[in-house]
Amino acid sequence: MQDELFAAAADGAADGAAGADESTQKRARGVQPAPSSDDDLALAAALSPHVHLGTSTWSYPGLQGLVWAGRHSESTLSRTGLPAYAAHPLLRAVGIDRGFYKPLAASEFQRYAEQVPAGFRFTVKAPSLVTDALIRNEDGRGQQPNPLFLDAAVAMQDFIEPVIEGLGTKIGALVFQISPLPGGLLARMPEQLDRLHAMLSALSTLPAGVVAVEVRDTAWLTSEFASLLRDTGARYCLGLHPKLPTLAEQLPLLRALWPGPLVARWNLNRLHGAYGYENAEKKYGEFAEMLDPDPETRAELARITRGTAGAGHDCFVTISNKAEGSAPLSVRALAQAVVQGAPQG
Known about the structure:
CATH class: Alpha Beta
Number of helices: 15
Helix content: 25-40%
Order of helices and strands: HEHEEHHEHEHEEHEHHEHEHEHHEHH
Radius of gyration: 19 Å
CATH superfamily: Protein of unknown function UPF0759
Number of strands: 12
Strand order of the largest sheet: 2-4-5-8-9-10-11-12
CATH architecture: Alpha-Beta Barrel
Strand content: 15-25%
């Protein structure tokens, strides 16, 4: 894919909230959406309907006034805050990460799907049961090899099938985030590529959305990896994380897979380093301010999003609070960059 393709103009105006399910008209008791500003409404109308931006979760109390009105506990927001989140004009997607720790039932996915408009999409992480080469203890230390690592049958039974049954057409991206590999497996990358190819080849076609692979080791980022994804119909999940090269350095892999949808997860600001989640959380507090803006990454991500949507492909982009300090503000800034970079007239 050529650079100019990523610079293409996004199509038309969005009406992503149109056709909302009847159930979304009922706001969760006690959790009301924050009033939408005229600027956000106008910005949402200018975004292509192919662009689905969102945060990595909807349950942070500090987003009071940005996403919902009033003060609520994290547990209340986790249970009943999704309809208020989905009412925000710019939030057309959200991540579901909790299934990484324990597989979720189809009924749980269905409950989420019933709370959002028809144009809303979910980015769902696969269980570590199939994406981590190690079985880990509570503090994250690897204890022993995981015999179910990249196991196709487990991936289908515990992830793909429940998501399809529960989310249906509201699937955005199903992300297999492969945890850092132990040294012994890194030394045998052809074996890991073969194992991943076998698993992806066995997965069924989704009713909507895409299967994507996110990694934490640069050893994956090769032409062989790109060929594997292309052969199996999977996408590369652009992982914006200090353990990986910069976005610009990952761009050749996206070009090798062009054309097709974009899946991106902006996880952590590079200034915090590869293991900086805890430091970022302490610094950003309740995630109500953009304390560490990263305009360079944002501008490049906007260019890729604009070009992908302009070519008629869906974009599923979720942003963590630890990317710039406040995920909703990052979403707004990214949306502005996407729209402002489009040719006028």
